[in-house]
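Minutes, project check-in
Item: structure for the 300-residue chain
Input as provided by the requester:
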Amino acid sequence: MTPVIITLYNRPSHTNQLFESILNSQKYKKFKFYVFCDGPKSKNDNLKIKEIKKILNLYKNRLKIKCFFRKKNTGLLKNITSSISYILKKYDKAIILEDDLIINKNFFNFMEMALKKYANHNKILQISGYSYPIAKVKSHHFLSLTSCWGWGITAQNWRDFSKFLKNKKLISKHFNLIKNDKILKAKFNYNNSYNYFSLLKKSLSNKVNSWGIIFYLYLFVNQKFTFFPNHSLVKNRGFDGSGNHRSESNVFNRSFKNISSKSFSNKIIEHKFHKEQVEVFFKQNLSMYAKIRKRIYDFI
C-alpha cells in the first residue's frame, strides 16, 4: 500500500475541497491518508485548526485517516519535510498532497502506475500529478524540473535528498558554482526562461521559506528527471492570497482532461518539444515583462 501524506495548516475550506476531490477520485479506498497539521501562530489560527479537526472527523467514516496535530508552529518547510521523513521510515514510497490542492478522478490511478513503473530507476527523482499548461502535449513526459503540487517519491530518493538538504556546505558550493558560471546559471534558469537562481539566493539568505528550490537544485546537480502527465491531474486553489506564496495569479491551472494510461515510456529522456513548450510558458507568464504586462492589463 502506498501512503498518502497530506500537510495542512489554517485553511479549513481548502481542506474540505481537497477531501471532497479525494472522495470523487478512483481507487481512493486503497490508500491510507496521513494528515499533518502545523500548529497555530495565533488565536485565530487556533480557531481555524479546531474547525479543521471537525472537518476531518466528518471524513473518518469514509476514508482511512490518521491525523497528527502539531502543538507548535514549525513552518511550511519543516512541517512538509519532517512529515514525509516520518512516513517514509515505514514505507518504500509515498504520495504527497497539500491542503490547497484538488485532484482529478484519475490522479491515484496515474500515480500508482507511474510509481510502480519508475520506482527503481535512478534517473527519476519524482512522479508529478501536476503538469504545466502547455499546448499540444499528447504524451506523458520527462522534464528536468520538480513539482510540489501532488507528487510521489520513493523512500530512497527522499533519503538521498534529505542528506543533501542538511548539507549546507554542499548546497553553498553548488550555489557558488552556478553563480560564477553564466552557462551553468542559464541552464539552472531553464534556458533563462525563469529566474530559479534568484529564488535559490533568497532561500539561502532566509528571505523566503522554500524547500522546493533546494529540491530543484538537488535534481539539477544530480541530472535527474520528473515524470509528468500529459494533462494536469491537480489544480491549486491557493491562488486566492491565502497561501504561503500569497499569489493571486492563476496561470498554472487549466480544466481537467482525460489522460492517456498507456504512454509510459521506457526511454528516460527530456524531449526538446516538451522542454521548449515549458520555456515558452515560463517566458510568457513568469518573466518580469509578463508580470508588468499583466498588472497594466488588470489596471485597465
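Outcome recorded: Residues 128 and 151 are 4 Å apart (CA to CA).
No further action items on this chain.
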